[in-house]
Design goal:
The complex is a heterodimer of chains A (about 130) and B (about 160).
Chain A (H helix, E strand, L loop, with lengths): L6 H24 L4 E8 L2 E7 L7 E7 L2 E8 L2 E7 L5 H4 L10 E3 L4 E7 L12
Chain B lengths: L1 H24 L15 H10 L2 H19 L2 H22 L7 H24 L8 H26 L4
The chains are: A alpha+beta (about 130), B mainly alpha (about 160).
Chain lengths: ~130, ~160
């Protein structure tokens, strides 16, 4: 006879784990922090950093990756991938990144755009709210 | 008996493959990469409980390889393979403490293990730790999908019988 646990035990355990994940996901997605600098990395190397607070008008530029080309568009406070020649275009569909902690990724091109806090530590993080 | 086993495994693989190919044609549920229903996993869950570890591993490996050829791309193979391996190992381990009426729990935890594997590969491939920020949303959606596929597998087992 193998050791087993009741259905109720598993339901409680997994429901708790689910709520924890869902809560963390919401927090990471929504919470605008002091992250105002967009960091673009290809293959783990930083290729460009843009202070989104310094952007005054919408502008686009291209990023060359070993897998292909992504066109990145910035506007005041936001950044997105507007065009890409990757097979799935998931990066384009992700839309604008504006303050959340969850980065835009283009896995086929190994391109990641994440927001980091400006000043890199020497300035105290602004209290959001 | 060998012929019977071969036939059964081949049939389960083709069913899983058909589900996988059809699912791949559906538009993605969200714009978040990596979020899928994973309906082909119904067969994996069923196989783990009804036909044993070695056969389940063979069915899963064949489905991932053939699925990549028919409906995927080489860049997604690594994610499927890492996720699939972890998912299978988690479910095989859980089978020791789960009854056949608790397959849904194995499926939910297996799905979470799958997502953990995917993210681990994504972090390794892009060299960006920040991708871990995706983990909670992937886990939450994966567990939901895992619950559904687990209940499907459980209903399947009930209909066509368990271990054979």
């Amino acid at each position: 006879m193998k050791r087993t646990f009741s259905n109720r035990f598993w339901a409680a355990l997994l429901a708790a784990a689910f709520l924890l994940c869902a809560g963390a996901a919401l927090l990471l997605w929504r919470t605008p922090g002091a992250r105002t600098v967009a960091r673009i990395t290809v293959d783990g190397r930083v290729v460009r950093e843009i202070d989104l607070t310094a952007v005054t008008a919408e502008a686009s530029f291209t990023v060359q990756t070993p897998g292909g080309v992504n066109t990145v568009t910035v506007r005041p406070g936001g950044i997105c991938v507007s065009e890409a020649d990757c097979p799935d275009h998931v990066c384009v569909k992700q839309g604008w990144l504006e303050g959340g902690a969850v980065p835009i990724v283009c896995l086929p091109h190994r391109l990641v755009i994440s927001l980091v806090s400006g000043g890199d530590g020497d300035a105290p993080d602004a209290v959001s709210g | 008996m060998q012929t019977r086993r071969l036939t059964r495994d081949a049939m389960l693989t083709s069913v899983a493959l058909i589900i996988f190919v059809i699912e791949a044609q559906l538009p993605p549920l969200t714009s978040i990469p990596g979020i899928r229903m994973g309906l082909a996993n119904i067969i994996t869950v069923y196989a783990v409980f009804a036909v044993g570890a070695a056969d389940a591993a063979v069915i899963l490996a064949a489905r991932i390889l053939l699925g990549t050829i028919f409906a995927g791309s080489l860049s997604t193979l690594m994610y499927s393979a890492a996720g699939g391996c972890l998912c299978l190992l988690a479910m095989l381990a859980l089978k020791r403490v789960l009854t056949e009426r608790q397959m849904w729990a194995a499926s939910v935890i297996g799905a979470a293990a799958h997502n953990a594997g995917q993210i681990a590969v994504a972090v390794a491939v892009t060299g960006t730790i920040g991708l871990l920020a995706y983990l909670p949303v992937l886990l939450a959606s994966g567990m939901t999908a895992g619950l559904f596929t687990g209940l499907c597998a459980q209903a399947l087992t009930k209909r066509i019988g368990g271990r054979r």
